[in-house]
Design brief:
The complex is a heterodimer of chains A (323) and B (565).
Chain A lengths: L1 H19 L9 H9 L11 H11 L3 E9 L10 E11 L6 E6 L3 E2 L5 E8 L2 E5 L5 E3 L7 E4 L20 E7 L7 E9 L5 E4 L15 E7 L10 E6 L4 E4 L16 E6 L9 E9 L5 E9 L5 E9 L8
Parallel strand pairs in A: 1-9
Antiparallel strand pairs in A: 1-5, 2-3, 2-4, 2-6, 6-8, 7-9, 10-18, 11-12, 12-13, 13-15, 14-16, 16-17, 17-18
Chain B lengths: L2 H13 L7 E4 L29 E4 L35 E7 L10 E7 L7 E6 L8 H4 L1 H8 L8 E3 L4 E4 L12 E10 L1 E11 L2 E5 L3 E6 L6 E5 L22 E3 L15 E6 L7 H21 L5 E6 L7 H25 L5 E7 L2 H10 L6 E5 L44 E5 L5 H12 L3 E2 L2 E5 L9 E5 L3 E4 L3 H8 L17 E6 L13 H4 L2 H14 L15
Parallel strand pairs in B: 2-11, 12-15, 14-15, 14-16, 16-17, 17-18, 18-23
Antiparallel strand pairs in B: 1-3, 3-8, 4-7, 4-9, 5-6, 5-8, 9-10, 9-11, 12-13, 19-20, 20-21, 21-22
Helix pairs in contact in B: 5-6, 5-8
Classes of the chains: A mainly beta (323), B alpha/beta (565).
Chain lengths: 323, 565
C-alpha cells in the first residue's frame, strides 16, 4: 500500500509539473534555416509580404477538407484492410522567420471492407496520401505518395479534381513492386580529398577514392588562402561523368526526376560572404553514367583535412524509384 | 627454409587434386571500417596489414552486456566468460577477421580445415571466435538491429572455440556451401585475456599444413588503457556557498591523473586529435563513479573507435554532487563554474601541436561554458543536450519563455543574470539538442520553482538599488544578510534562466555556430537524455558520426553497400 501511495504521489507530481512547466518545442534550428537560405531557397508565397505570411498560412490551413479514396489490386478488385499513410498540412511552424506549413500524421488507417478510406471534418491546406509499402506500389504514381491541394490559392496545382465525393474517389491501383524498384543504401563515410585534385567517388566504394574512369562522381575542391579572420574562398565542383546531377532543397520525393540534370554543380563560399562557413551540404539527385539513379546527401568539410561524406539511396536497376 | 620446402604443402595439395591458392587473413588494422586482405585495383582502399610494430589493437570483453539497455554492474559474469554474445550491445566488443582465398569451393570441406594458432614465445592473448553471420564481412552487425540479432541467434550464436595455448581447428564444413562460394570467410572474435601475439591462420589436412596466411599481429589490452582520465576533487572542508555567513572562500582546483590501476597507454596509431570529454551530473563515490564511467563514457569511447576515431580521448571528471536532490543540482552547478579554471589549465597543458576538441554532456555544459568565458581556445566545443541556459549564448529576447518574461530580476549577464554570458569566443560552439528530452521538465522546474533558493533559514533575494551595489544578497533568518559578490553563486543558485536549456533549444544563434536536432532522424532519441550510450549501438552510431563530423574528423559509415567484395 505504501508503495502504491508513493507511486500516486510521484505520478501526481509529474503531472503537476508537466502541467505548469513549459518544455521546449521541436523546432528547426537557426542553422537549418541558414542552410536553406545559403542554398538560395526562400519560400515562395506568391509575393506576399513577410508580415502577412503567417496570416495567409493560417487562413490556408483552415480550409475544410473532405477526401474519399479507393484502393484496388492489379485486377481491379478492392483491397480490404490495406494500410494507408496520410498527413495533413494543418499548422504553422515556428520559429521560422517565414512561417511554413507544418503537418500532422493522421495515424494508422486501413481500408474498409470495400477498399475505401475517407477523411472528413478536417481542416488543412493539403493532404498527402501514400498507399505504397515495401511490397506494393501505386502504379499510377510510383513516387509513393500523392498530394491533394485544398486551399483555394493552390487548387490549380492539382492534376485531377479533388475527390470530395464518395462516388468519385481517388483511385489507387496497387501492383507488386518489381525487382527493379529495389534500392540499396549508399553510406560511404568520409572520403579525404586534396585541394586542387580531382577525386573519383563510386557509390559502392566507401571511404576512399576510385579511378576517375570508374567514378560515379568527380569532386574537386578549390581553396584560397585564409585571411586574418581565418576565412578563405572555397568551391567544391561536383561532376557526374557521363550522367547528370541536380540540386534539390529536400529529398522528400521518392522518385528521381526524369529531367533537369546538369553536368556539374558547384557549392562554396567567398571569404566575405556573411554566412561563410567551412562546411556545406548538398542534397541532390544523381543519374550515373550507367543510367542508374540515386538520391544523395553530400557533406563537405574544407579545413586542413578536407573530406566529403556521402549517404543516400541508389537504384541499381535503372529505375527512378528511390523509396 | 628453402623455397621448395615452403612450397611443399601447396605442391602436395595440388598432387591431391585440391587447388590451394594464397591464403590471406586480415583485421581492420587501419580503422577504416573495411577489412581488405589485399588491395583492389583502381580503388585507393589500402590492404590491412599488421606488423610487430603496428599490431591490431583491441580490448578485452570483460564488461557485462547482458541487458537490453545499459550494462550489468558489477561485472559478476564478464562477457568473455561464456561462449555466446550477451546482447546486441555486446557486439561492440567483438571485431572481425576476414580470411581470403581464391576458391574455397575447390577445397574438400570434409577433409580441409582452417587452423588458428598463436606462435610460441611471449605472452599471446586468448581470443574466442565466432562465425560471422554477415556474408560480406561488413560491420552491419553493429549498424543494423536485424543483422545484429542474426549474429546473436542460432546458428551463429555459439562460439566456434577459443584460441589460446591450444590452436583452434575449424573444418571448412562449418561454413555452408553458399558461404564457401565466396572469396572471403568471416569470423568475429572477442578478447578473453590480454597479451600480444602472432596469429597464424592456416589450411590443414590430416595434420599437414597446406597454406599459411601472412601472420596477424594482435594485441589485446584492458579498455581503460585506451583512453586517458583526469579528475578534479572538491576540498572536503569547502561547504555550499549558502552556508557561509561571510563571503565563501574560492577554491583553487587542479586536474590530477586518474589511472584507476590501468594507466593510459598511447597506441601506435594515435593521430593528432584529442577529444576532452566532460561528463554531466553523475555520482562521485568510487563504486558509482566507475559504474557510470563504464556505462557512459567508456561506451562512447568504443563507439567513436568503431567509427574510425584513432586520436586520444580524455575523460575529465569534476566534483558533481548527485545526492541531496535539488541541493545537489545547485551545488553541482556552482562547482561546475569553480572547476572551469582547472579544465582550462588542463587543456593548456596539452601539446600545442595537437588538434584539441572538447565536448560535454548535460550539466557539464556549465564547466565548458565557463571555460569558454575564461578564454578557452580550442578547435571546437560541442555541447551535448546541455543543461545550461540557451540565453547565455544568445541574448535574443525571442528565446524567453513567456511565463518568465516578467520576472522581477534582470536577465542580463552584466547584472548577474544569464543572458549574453558568452558574447564572444574564438572557439566555434556547436550544440546537439533534443526538445523532447524529459530532462528539460526537471531543469525548467528548477529554474521556475527552485531558483532562487529559499528555505532552511536561508534565502537569496534580489534587491534592486541595494546599498552594497550588488543586486543579490543572501539572507539568514531576518537578521543577517550578505551581498552576493560572486556571479557564479548568483547564476547557480539565485537567478533562474529565462530561456530553455541550450540542450532543448534549436533556435539559439548568438555565438552558437550550429545546432543539431536529436529528436529528428537519423537520431530520434525520443525523450531519452542518455540514448547515445544507453541504447544499443545499432540505433545510435549516427550520433558518434555527428560528434566526429562536428570536429571535422573523418569517420566510417560503411553499411550494406559498403563492403562489396
Amino acid at each position: 500500500m505504501r508503495r502504491k501511495q508513493q507511486l500516486v504521489i510521484c505520478l501526481v507530481s509529474v503531472l503537476t509539473l508537466g502541467g505548469c512547466i513549459t518544455t521546449p518545442r521541436d523546432t528547426y534550428s537557426l542553422f537549418d534555416i541558414a542552410s536553406l537560405q545559403a542554398r538560395g531557397w526562400e519560400p515562395d508565397f506568391g509575393g506576399i509580404n513577410r508580415g502577412e505570411i503567417e496570416q495567409e498560412v493560417r487562413a490556408e490551413i483552415a480550409t475544410p477538407l473532405e477526401f474519399h479514396g479507393l484502393v484496388l489490386d492489379e485486377l481491379g478488385q478492392a483491397i480490404a484492410g490495406h494500410p494507408v499513410k496520410a498527413v495533413i498540412f494543418d499548422r504553422v511552424l515556428h520559429p521560422f522567420q517565414s512561417p511554413y506549413f507544418g503537418w500532422s500524421s493522421l495515424g494508422d488507417i486501413r481500408t474498409d471492407s470495400e477498399g475505401r478510406f475517407d477523411f472528413s471534418g478536417l481542416e488543412g491546406a493539403a493532404l498527402v496520401v501514400s498507399v505504397s509499402n515495401e511490397e506494393y506500389w501505386d502504379v499510377d504514381d510510383k513516387r509513393a505518395q500523392r498530394i491533394f491541394y485544398y486551399s483555394p490559392s493552390r487548387r490549380d496545382s492539382n492534376l485531377h479534381p479533388l475527390p470530395t465525393a464518395r462516388d468519385a474517389p481517388a483511385i489507387f491501383r496497387l501492383d507488386r513492386k518489381p525487382e527493379a524498384a529495389g534500392t540499396e543504401l549508399v553510406r560511404l563515410g568520409s572520403i579525404l580529398i586534396s585541394p586542387g585534385e580531382v577525386a573519383g567517388i563510386a557509390l559502392r566504394r566507401p571511404r576512399y577514392t576510385v579511378d576517375v574512369d570508374d567514378a560515379d562522381l568527380l569532386v574537386e575542391l578549390l581553396r584560397g588562402q585564409p585571411g586574418d579572420d581565418g576565412r578563405y574562398d572555397w568551391r567544391l565542383q561536383v561532376r557526374a561523368p557521363g550522367g547528370g546531377i541536380q540540386s534539390v532543397h529536400s529529398l522528400f520525393s521518392d522518385q528521381a526526376p526524369e529531367g533537369g540534370y546538369l553536368d556539374a554543380l558547384e557549392l562554396g563560399f567567398d571569404a566575405d560572404h556573411p554566412q561563410w562557413n567551412h562546411r556545406a551540404e548538398l542534397l541532390c539527385f544523381l543519374r550515373t553514367r550507367k543510367g542508374n539513379y540515386a538520391s544523395l546527401t553530400l557533406r563537405v568539410r574544407t579545413l586542413e583535412r578536407p573530406f566529403v561524406a556521402i549517404s543516400g539511396k541508389l537504384n541499381p536497376h535503372g529505375e527512378r524509384y528511390l523509396d | 627454409m628453402s623455397l621448395l620446402r615452403r612450397l611443399f604443402p601447396a605442391i602436395l595439395a595440388c598432387a591431391l587434386c585440391d587447388t590451394v591458392y594464397a591464403l590471406t587473413a586480415a583485421v581492420d588494422q587501419n580503422g577504416d571500417g573495411l577489412v581488405y586482405p589485399s588491395a583492389i585495383p583502381g580503388y585507393a582502399a589500402p590492404a590491412d596489414r599488421t606488423s610487430p610494430a603496428q599490431p591490431f589493437l583491441f580490448w578485452l570483453n570483460d564488461d557485462q552486456d547482458d541487458l537490453e539497455l545499459y550494462e550489468s554492474w558489477p561485472h559478476d559474469v564478464p562477457d568473455n566468460s561464456d561462449d555466446h554474445p550477451g546482447s546486441l550491445r555486446d557486439l561492440e566488443d567483438l571485431t572481425r577477421i576476414v580470411i581470403e582465398q581464391e576458391n574455397w569451393a575447390a577445397l574438400d570441406p570434409a577433409t580441409v580445415s582452417l587452423q588458428l594458432r598463436w606462435r610460441e614465445g611471449g605472452q599471446a592473448p586468448v581470443i574466442r571466435v565466432w562465425r560471422s553471420g554477415i556474408p560480406r564481412c561488413s560491420r552491419s552487425y553493429l549498424e543494423e538491429t536485424a543483422v545484429g540479432q542474426r549474429q546473436i541467434d542460432a546458428p551463429y550464436r555459439q562460439a566456434l572455440g577459443v584460441v589460446g595455448t591450444q590452436g583452434l581447428t575449424l573444418p571448412l564444413g562449418r561454413w555452408t556451401a553458399e558461404e564457401r562460394q565466396r572469396q572471403w570467410l568471416c569470423l568475429l572474435f572477442e578478447g578473453v585475456s590480454e597479451g600480444r601475439g602472432t596469429l597464424d591462420v592456416s589450411l590443414v589436412r590430416d595434420g599437414q599444413t597446406l597454406e599459411t596466411s601472412p601472420p596477424l599481429h594482435i594485441e589485446l589490452r584492458p579498455v581503460k588503457s585506451f583512453y586517458d582520465r583526469v579528475g578534479v576533487s572538491w576540498p572536503e572542508d569547502l561547504r555550499p556557498p549558502w552556508t557561509y555567513i561571510g563571503t565563501p572562500p574560492s577554491p583553487e582546483l587542479h586536474a590530477e591523473p586518474e589511472p584507476m590501476g590501468i594507466p593510459f597507454q598511447r597506441p601506435w596509431y594515435e593521430t593528432d586529435d584529442i577529444i576532452v570529454w566532460v561528463h554531466g551530473w553523475i555520482p562521485q563515490d568510487p563504486e558509482n563513479y566507475q559504474r557510470t564511467l563504464v556505462f557512459s563514457f567508456e561506451t562512447m569511447w568504443k563507439r567513436l573507435w568503431h567509427q574510425g576515431f584513432r586520436g586520444r580521448v580524455i575523460h575529465f571528471r569534476w566534483p558533481t554532487v548527485k545526492k541531496h536532490q535539488m541541493f545537489g543540482l545547485y551545488i553541482s552547478e556552482y562547482r561546475g563554474y569553480k572547476s572551469a579554471p582547472a579544465l582550462l589549465d588542463f587543456v593548456e597543458t596539452l601539446p600545442a601541436d595537437k588538434r584539441i576538441h572538447i565536448t560535454t554532456h548535460s550539466l557539464g555544459g556549465v564547466l565548458l561554458m565557463e571555460a569558454i568565458k575564461l578564454g578557452l581556445d580550442v578547435e571546437e566545443a560541442l555541447f551535448q543536450v546541455s543543461a545550461v541556459p540557451a540565453e547565455s549564448f544568445d541574448s535574443n529576447e525571442s528565446l524567453i519563455i513567456p511565463e518568465l518574461k516578467d520576472l522581477d530580476m534582470p536577465r542580463d549577464a552584466n547584472s548577474m543574470g544569464h543572458a549574453g554570458y558568452i558574447s564572444e569566443t574564438r572557439t566555434p560552439i556547436y550544440s546537439a539538442y533534443n526538445p523532447a528530452d524529459v530532462t528539460w521538465l526537471g531543469w525548467n522546474a528548477a529554474q521556475k520553482i527552485a531558483k532562487p533558493l529559499t528555505g532552511f533559514d536561508r534565502r537569496y533575494a534580489y534587491v534592486p538599488n541595494n546599498s552594497s551595489g550588488k543586486p543579490y544578497e543572501l539572507r539568514r533568518w531576518w537578521i543577517q544578510s550578505r551581498p552576493v559578490d560572486d556571479q557564479h553563486e548568483a547564476m547557480a543558485i539565485a537567478v533562474p534562466a529565462r530561456s530553455q536549456a541550450l540542450g532543448g533549444e534549436g533556435r539559439v544563434g548568438g555565438v552558437v555556430e550550429a545546432a543539431y536536432n536529436l529528436h529528428q532522424p537519423p537520431f530520434e532519441f525520443q525523450a531519452d537524455h542518455v540514448a547515445m550510450w544507453r541504447w544499443n549501438p545499432q540505433k545510435v552510431l549516427p550520433y558518434s558520426n555527428l560528434i566526429l563530423d562536428v570536429f571535422n574528423i573523418p569517420y566510417n559509415d560503411a553499411g550494406q553497400s559498403g563492403s562489396e567484395q
